[in-house]
User: Fold this.
Amino acid sequence: MPSNSTHIAKALLPLLFGGAAFAGVLPKIELPKDSPVAVLSSDYGDSSETPRGGAMLVDLHASITLRNSSQRHIRGITLLVTAQDVTPGGKGSVTVTSLDVGPNESFPVRVDLRLLRPLQAGGGGLVQIGLDGILFDDLSFYGPDKLSSRRILTMTEWEARRDRKYFKSLLADGGQQKLKDAIMASVAHSADRPTLDVQMVRGGRATNFEPEKQVQFAFLQLPDSPIEPMDGMARIAGNEARSPRLEVKNRSDRPIRYLEMGWILRDGSGREFLAGAVPAELKLAPGQKGQILDNTTLKFPQRGGAQLGIEGMTGYVSSVEFSDGTVWIPSRADLGIPQLQHVMAPSDEEQRLVQLYLKKGIKALVAELNKF
Amino acid sequence: MKHPNETQLALFAGGDLGFWDRWRLRQHVSRCSACESEVQSLRAAAKQIRELSGEMPGDLNIDRNWDRLAEEMTGNIRVGLAAGEAIARFDRPAPNAKPLRLGWNAGFVVAGATVVFATAFWINIPQPQKDHLIAALGKIRVERLGKLVTSHPAARPEDVMLEASSSGIEFTENGRTLSLMHPAVDQRRVPVTVSVNMRGSAGVRYVDADTGQVTTNKVYYAEQ
Assistant:
């Protein structure tokens, strides 16, 4: 149901910005009638709509304030962003995690969206914003879950709990100094972690200039993982990696319905970086083997540097969801493996705690850890 | 008497003149050494012909069948002329003549041998070398023609569906784009974590410098 604030904003913005055409930028916010959150306000400050050649560039900068109208604490929320008239085949989402929003408390969600559409296309009703899911502190979930938000938010929450527990244990064992050292180590790892731009192409290769070769996966063995990677390969051509094929075995005593494999690539100089995650929705009974196949191509464009020559690959189990809805994620000890530590990004919660320390200091961090 | 002409001398030498003309020429020849010499020359030639005609078949004997010999000679001349024309036609191509089959047959043999060789080569060459060969041929084709002619299902620019970079994430469809950006602080983008899920999504995570809030923007294919 569109909020009153949206209607008011739509009426006022043309007057504020002196152009009726700008009203077309305004998104249509629709939340279910029984939604646990309500739109408190929305601000479209620097939004604009400017012609560029034969196209129209729509810049939407929205700050939407939501209020928790439920009786539980919200841990995470995912908003679905669509522009059916412009890109009917694709959609976007904005997810906010590591929240602790109590009943009747409010929180902001930023949506910075850019649309490039033909001039002929209509200007009205371009962007729709809806709710895909909310995760509460008791791990219950609300929402249509079109983007698998339940699984993503649940795993993120488990990672948050793992890392809070880890930092709290450091504080309990070694005091503020040990906590501080761990936070600084996390900052150092983030600075050292290689990052690359990635393009994803569905289907064929993005180029046929480079010779293609099959490369075998090496695997990082995580002792507690319920999945054992058996074999795997992918096709590599220059700076492209495609069509990974993996064989795995369920070595737990519970059936599994979803898993994700992390995919680490190594270039000619020995530098490693995380290429992406290879997910699979499958039904694996205890002891059963299964295959993960994908026909996607990843391309790593080099901006101004030498072309990336992929020489080797390493896979590891990054998450597992059992049939009963519970999940497995790597432990802090697993994350301490140097190869993994070098390429894996910190969890959302760890990144938030680090930011809190850098901005407000150790006392604010300790106070945050003591909240729950 | 003036000198007789060559015909009269030839007829005299062969004994073919009448009585009066034969007597008159005999009187002249007996007194004219030049005409006598000509008559002697004609009689020697006639004698030589008779001797040569003696080696020929009996019905071609010059003494008995001159007309038959003349017909035979005329026939030989015609045969010679016809043979000359035939040789001339052999040297230049006839207007509607079919090409010789020998060239095509040789071409078929060479083409067949090439196919057999190429197939055997292709079957036995290791995969990496095969890939390299294809790539090298592709490069040559591009360099020579200046334009890539793709037969491989290589992706076209409009097929690049998702892109995640430090400036944001983008979904492209038929030249139209939907991008989700993360905010800049003091004209600089905040540090981000880029992630890609092979199921069809690309994401960028950032921490809001003011609120400390962790936000992840993602773009998806329609199938998800």
